[in-house]
Amino acid sequence: MENFNAANEIQDLQYFGEFGGVNPSISDSSTYTFLSAKTMFDTFEGNAEGCYLYSRHSSPMNLYLAQALAKMENTESANVTASGMGAITSVLMQVCKSGDHIISSRTIYGGTYAFLKNFMPQFNVETSFVDINNFESIENAITPNTKVIYCESVSNPLLEVADLRKLSEICKKHNLKLIVDNTFSPLSISPTVFGADVVIHSLTKFINGSSDTVGGVYCATQAFIDDTKNVNSGACMLLGPTMDSLRSSSILKNLRTLHIRIKQHSHNAMYLAERFEKDGLKISYPGLPSHKNHELMKSMIHEEYGYGGLLTLDAGTTEKANELMELMQAENLGYLAVSLGFYKTLFSCSGKSTSSEIPEEERASIGISDGLIRFSIGLDHDIKRTYHKMKECMLKVGVLNHHENISIS
Ligand SMILES: *Cc1c(COP(=O)(O)O)cnc(C)c1O
């Protein structure tokens, strides 16, 4: 398993276009014709290999992209969706029926949190939110109705790392499914290597990397993917978060450079994190030995891809955070925007944006402070230049004080 190399798997895929093109042809159709009515029926039932019926069911380009992502996550199969939330909700609604129970990390993407906390109880599916690395509290939360442990391999926005080996052990012992959102650490972490059953990504972020579309995927066994696409009972088939073929084509092309981009994002984030920490700023980055999950992450990553492009800075107050972000944007160091994985650095105040679904008291108790800025570090060619310009901004707004920091070298 240690030898599994996702970038090689993606590189080795060959898909040719209809006329010998080096890229596969986009099938620009929602529906497909048949010469025989019998084949149409068989296709509807999912029994006619290589035939397409209707593009919500499947389409050639979506299958290509899904196959490439299954290669990346080392699973038998995958299914692409119109958004990351489309993948998360389809998977959880497929796995859980009325009366079932989910155990979820309490530090997860705000949309996922809102779905589990507010939406699923309407269908009589309850969730216990836990500290994902407190294994005792996890075991205590397990009931006869528990079906799933849900977590993010690296969590949003606090960059907590889940111990997937240990979680998978607990899941095996209690016959639960381990479902992992790997959006923050594509290529760096391969959750299936540690025993994850389903791996989910928001393709919107690093995998597509150009902030021009939303998209999602879930990677799992062929049997599970088939269940979600079943015309009578499949959550994804029936809820219908279908990705468009034109988009799956553009995402597939971007996926091919993911390995290069991730290395640069990680390199740049590490460079800034190390220096800002030395300057005395409150930085959290799993690549720093001071991060509480540094050793754990080190034991799980494919080292060449590093610790990822996300870091957080506590600016103290929302006002200071806002002032700093506005100044950094004015200095063209990045954009005041949510999301991640873009070529430009993106920054946002988590408590006031992507984690605002989490109630204030809960945010405070898990450590999302009001002045917490999440940075998605870009692909900057000259990160030293960026560091100096960012530091000037921090001095200017007083997030960093001159006396604490004598040498601006
Ligand atoms: C963005 C994000 C999602 C949701 O994805 P969409 O594509 O916006 O639906 C889910 N999980 C994580 C960790 C994310 O960052």
Automatic annotation (TrEMBL):
Q: Name one GO molecular function term.
A: methionine gamma-lyase activity
Q: What is its EC number?
A: 4.4.1.11
Any idea which UniProt keywords this protein has?
Lyase, Pyridoxal phosphate
Q: Which cofactor does it need?
A: pyridoxal 5'-phosphate
The main enzyme category here is lyase
InterPro entries per UniProt:
Cys/Met-Metab_PyrdxlP-dep_enz (IPR000277), PyrdxlP-dep_Trfase (IPR015424), PyrdxlP-dep_Trfase_major (IPR015421), PyrdxlP-dep_Trfase_small (IPR015422)
Q: What is stated as this protein's family in its record?
A: Belongs to the trans-sulfuration enzymes family.
Q: Which PANTHER family match?
A: CYSTATHIONINE GAMMA-LYASE, TRANS-SULFURATION ENZYME FAMILY MEMBER
| Name recorded for this polypeptide | Methionine-gamma-lyase
Q: Which organism is it from?
A: Chryseobacterium sediminis
